[in-house]
Amino acid sequence: MFRINSDIGIDLGTANVLVSVRGKGIVIKEPTVVAIDKSSGKVIAVGSQARRMLGRTPGDIVAIRPLRDGVIADYDVTEKMLRYFIDKAGGRKFFFKPRVMVCIPSGVTGVEERAVKQAAVQAGARQAFVIEEPLAAALGAGLDISQPGGTMVVDIGGGTTDVAVLSLGGIVHSLSLRVGGDKFDENIVRYIRREFNLAIGERTAEEIKMHIADACPGEDPEGSMRVRGRDLVDGLPKEITVTGRHVYDAIKENLASVVGAVKEVLEHTPPELAADIVDKGIVLTGGGALLHNMDKLLARETGVNCFLADDPLSCVAIGTSRALTMLKALNTQQKRRLIRKAIRQKIYAG
């Protein structure tokens, strides 16, 4: 039974929404997809049921993803989706509304941050807070970031990749890149269209990525997959064989962007913290971290050991729920960070 202090943490991801309830852990894990009746605006389905409709709906129903690149692309649909998930988690079954913590990419603007808070309140939250994804990921992975020692987290989500160095409960340096699992899927779709004249959908591209993609293949990548789609020449159904080399060629530019972001953050990390990171290694979280050999790729390119968190997919959601018990400390760190930012801007302005 929910009490007056019921807390809900939401990982509002581009690809998936995970909801964590204080004392219960992860209670919801659903795709970030909503099916809408275009004529009435009524929600037909949310989550897994709506995802099955992607690319298969009749003319009067549209299945959409209300978030793009980690931020809200359709505010009204996002609010309806959040209301559904809060209700499903039990947050509105009793008189008192829950406090809700929602994660955001580290590079969002003030307008995008306010939109997330407002959507959560409109969806039924008593109070709405936000936390940056790398910080939530570190908390969810069980890392001790309260001590004066450097910890590096790379969170590869559906819409964004967040790279951050953490110390004393706050972010020392971070970089948010709008490249993630969805970009991998899009590039696989484009590659197959260009090389094979075959049109495939998002779901097929995601299945290809999950089954045969390799971030660090050898000279002869293993794995192949039969793929069906529509021939762009004659418009008829067609089946082809896609290999691991094809998939790597499709996503290698995105992989290079992720590696570049990690290197850039390391270059801006203070020497003492960099030494700590060499000792501790780099922690990978998020669904994109599950791409085969992603840890091996980053370790090879940076020279620093990399390892997956115990539950990469759930780290951010668990961290958002835990953060509600640490609001005072997090607010203090956020104020200090804003002060440091203002001082730097003043110095640069002369």
Produce a short descriptive summary.
The protein has helices at residues 48-51, 75-88, 110-122, 133-140, 181-196, 202-212, 244-267, 271-280, 294-302, 315-323, 327-349; strands spanning 7-12, 16-21, 25-31, 34-37, 43-46, 61-64, 67-68, 71-72, 99-104, 127-132, 151-156, 161-167, 170-177, 198-199, 224-231, 237-243, 282-285, 306-308. The protein is an alpha+beta fold and 350 residues long.
Which percent range describes the beta-strand content?
Answer: 25-35%
Shape estimate: flat
What's the order of the H and E elements? EEEEEHEEEHEHEHEEEHEHEEHHEHEHH
Q: What is the straight-line distance between the termini? A: 57 Å
Tell me the strand order in the biggest sheet. Answer: 3-2-1-9-10
Write the CATH homologous superfamily of the largest domain: ATPase, nucleotide binding domain
Helical residue percent band: 40-55%
Structure class: alpha+beta
Average pLDDT figure:
85
Given as residue ranges, the uncertain stretches (5+ residues, pLDDT < 50) are 338-350
Nearest-angstrom radius of gyration?
21 Å
Tell me, what is the CATH class of the largest domain? Alpha Beta
What is the number of helical segments per DSSP (H or I, 4+ residues)? 11
- How many strands in all? 18
CATH topology of the largest domain: Nucleotidyltransferase, domain 5
Written account of the structure:
There is one protein chain. With 350 residues, this protein is α+β, with helices and mostly antiparallel strands. The protein has three domains: 7-136 and 317-349, ATPase, nucleotide binding domain (Nucleotidyltransferase, domain 5); 145-179 and 258-310, 2-Layer Sandwich (Nucleotidyltransferase, domain 5); 181-251, ATPase, substrate binding domain, subdomain 4 (Actin, Chain A, domain 4, Alpha-Beta Complex), CATH 3.90.640.10. It has helices spanning 48-51, 75-88, 110-122, 133-140, 181-196, 202-212, 244-267, 271-280, 294-302, 315-323, 327-349; strands spanning 7-12, 16-21, 25-31, 34-37, 43-46, 61-64, 67-68, 71-72, 99-104, 127-132, 151-156, 161-167, 170-177, 198-199, 224-231, 237-243, 282-285, 306-308. α9 (294-302) links the parallel β17 (282-285) and β18. α2 packs across α3 (110-122) and α5 (181-196) runs antiparallel to α7. The longest helix is centred in the last third of the chain and has 24 residues, at 244-267.
